[in-house]
Amino acid sequence: MSEKVKVTIDGISVEVEPGTTILNAARQIGGDIVPPAMCYYSKLAGSGGKCRTCIVKVSKGSEKDPRPMPKLVASCRTTVMDGMEVQNITSPEVLEARSGVVEMLLINHPLDCPVCDQAGECDLQNLGYEHGLQKTRYEFERRTFERIDIGDKIQLHMNRCILCYRCVFTADQITNKRVHGILNRGDHSEISTYIQTAVDNDFSGNVIDVCPVGALTDKTFRFKNRVWFTKPVDAHRDCPACSGKVTLWYKGENVLRVTARKDIYGEVEEFICNTCRFEKKATADWTLEHPTHISDASVISSNHYETMIPLPVIQENLHLQEANRVELEKTAKL
Amino acid sequence: MGRKLLLEHINVPGIHTLDVYRQKGGYRAVEKALKTLTPDEVVEEVKKSGLRGRGGAGFPTGMKWSFLAKPEGVARYLVCNADESEPGTFKDRYLMTHIPHALIEGMIVASYALGAKTSYIYVRGEMMPQIRILERAIAEAKAAGLLGKNILGSGYDLELYVQPGGGAYICGEETALLESLEGKRGNPRIKPPFPAIAGLYGCPTVVNNVESIAAVVPIINEGADEYMKIGIGRSTGTKLISASGNLVRPGVYEIELGLPVEEFIYSDEYCGGIANGKRLKATVAGGSSVPVLPANLSLKLANGDPRLMSYESLSEGGFATGTMMGSGGFIAFDEDQCIVRNTWNFARFYHHESCGQCSPCREGTGWMEKVLHRLEYGHGKMSDIDLLVDVSKKIEGNTICPLGDAAAWPVASAIRHFRDEFEWHVKEPLKSQETNYGIAMYAEPIAKAVTTE
């Protein structure tokens, strides 16, 4: 069966391949109606369904069976049916449940953003900004753990972890022998490499990129700088182990860190090896391509080169183009 | 005197041995099913009997069996869920301890109906004696040709294994049970796909409670029509109830569904009333997961009719004035029990047993436990009560498996029906540490039905 199925999300229809999840159908539409996802990662099989931030309401099951689904469903793990109607941001029920989930995610999170390396590119920060309360209702001590070094380049800061299991799937699927899992259960469960066995796999550094929060951080970049003071530049090198396509994060002329390239949903395009990530930190190692596109909603783009380009709507309107002539000329010169 | 189907011969000495069990008519169902019925006829019979799952959800067993996918060349499995760990429920343990062959007989018939060549009994890890009893019983049955190759010359092969559980409440959730059985961490799977399509090792699987499987035996022996005559409405047959709490005679009872709750608590045939001459304050009708009800609503429906022990009557009135049959763990509280403490105790259990996979349950159960602990020990605030209601609402329905709901319902229902007791704990922090709130007006008949929320 390869006929496309039609699904309507927040009133916008799209035709997708059968077997697509609601989340991926929404990503094909794009924009504000894409549910946020903290644990789902399209490159990792079996991920998703855990964080519950992507929950949506299915108000019509399908053309054949129009009954709505009784509960809110995780859009990352629910496949679309022909004629399905989904409500995301148009349903107050969904938004309330989602803010409930965000509150749950934050009650045991240390909220140490001022000293966290992830701040500025943290999914939880963005989510909390959009859906969270201004004040916590949780009046108890938060769970705490000791910091754990996973190998000499990666640090696990379990306090910040939201248990999305992405790194566990990465260890399972990207690297060839798993030394990474979950210990204990409930709110005292923790990510662990059994008795601190160092992950010395060549691709282990990718757990840093897949982590949606600051639980897994790059020790070579630790406390070096805030991400919004650094400038991302796409670059590549001829790497025998991986594709060699990376983003370099510059401060002045120094490369402070190297990460994989990420798409607009914060997912890496291609996983990179540890040599590229941790050892090649000189401009001479790389062929630079161009500045990385950073969404103008991100704090990282706030003080940089990215875009003086007027929005397309202005370019099409001759009257406005004329009014913005000076700015446009400046852009052209740049 | 109600009819007994499962526990009829429970007091016969040596009933746990194959010889005595067969003398009392055991394994007739196996002979009947394997020699005279086709697998589809067995499924049809169970479907017709109206047997509903005895593990908690009450889903019709025959229906569940008929949903099983039957692709060519793929193994099918029957898994018996004997991971009984719900606080207040101990019926399966009783059945397995005293009459293990009833379960094994049911497993053979059910496996035959489903076409399973390998079946598992997943027993809670703490129940080591029961595991040994079952293994001994399986060895006996195998020696007698009731298990293994070519059972009773019918050409049907079945291997039955007992698997000790991993020691977590969550492993009683069917997909977590399958994960645990496969040797992985017992995290519930995200559904769909349901086990009927892809269960154990990715093959179609049916997971049934011990009592559901044992109940197949009388259905085959006596026929679905006979079985249907017992019970009331869509609740057919008999049910094992594990009665605990402040009762004169707590224990496991087999009741005909449709027995009035009042009779169950007070009649001499069953629990014999509340212990020490006290009055009933509240009941939990189906194990710790179901909503708690005050005495007046436990005995009578909102419209004044007597409440019956049946799936429909217990859930009459929704969650506003009703509860659920659950797994049949009947807990009675007398006038000196503290509902806040009990709610905290349940919340502590769910906090401890949450698997930690999805965020609302992982974080919310701990939060509720902490707030309830504060209330119980006299450090609570008035706003805590509404906070609890709000947190429980945010957990309910937003989780992967029903553990989140099970954690939220007791808290929400305790506050719904016993709010004054919670408020008293806030207003009288010192007094609440020394005395009990007592019975207030919970045992009085309600003036008129009030639907809240």
Question: Could you characterize the architecture of this molecule?
Answer:
The complex is a heterodimer of chains A (334) and B (453). Chain A is globular, with a radius of gyration of 22 Å. Helices cover 22% and strands 19% of the residues of chain A. Chain A has nine helices and 14 strands. Chain A has a five-stranded mixed beta sheet, sandwiched between helices. Chain A is α+β, with helices and mostly antiparallel strands and 334 residues long. In chain A, strand 8 and strand 9 (190-192) form a beta hairpin. Chain B has 453 residues and is of the alpha/beta class. Chain B has helices at residues 18-23, 28-36, 39-49, 61-66, 91-98, 100-114, 128-143, 174-181, 210-222, 224-229, 261-266, 295-299, 311-314, 318-321, 339-353, 359-376, 382-395, 403-427, 431-434; strands at residues 77-82, 118-123, 159-164, 205-209, 231-232, 235-236, 238-245, 251-256, 259-260, 280-284, 292-294, 308-309, 329-334. In chain B, strands 8-7-13-10-11 form a five-stranded mixed beta sheet. In chain B, helix 16 (359-376) runs parallel beside helix 18 (403-427). The two termini of chain B are 41 Å apart. Chain A binds chain B through residues 48-53, 55, 71-72, 74, 77-79, 97, 100-101, 103-105, 107-108, 137-138, 140, 162-163, 165, 181-182, 184-189, and chain B through 168, 170, 185, 190, 192, 351-360, 362-367, 370, 387, 393-394, 397-400.
Summarize this, please?
Chain A has 334 residues and is an alpha+beta fold.
What is the H-and-E element order of chain A? EEHEEEHHEEHEEHEEEEHEHHH
Most extensive contact: A-B, 35 and 29 residues
Radius of gyration from the alpha-carbon trace of chain B, in angstroms: 22 Å
Strand content of chain A: 15-25%
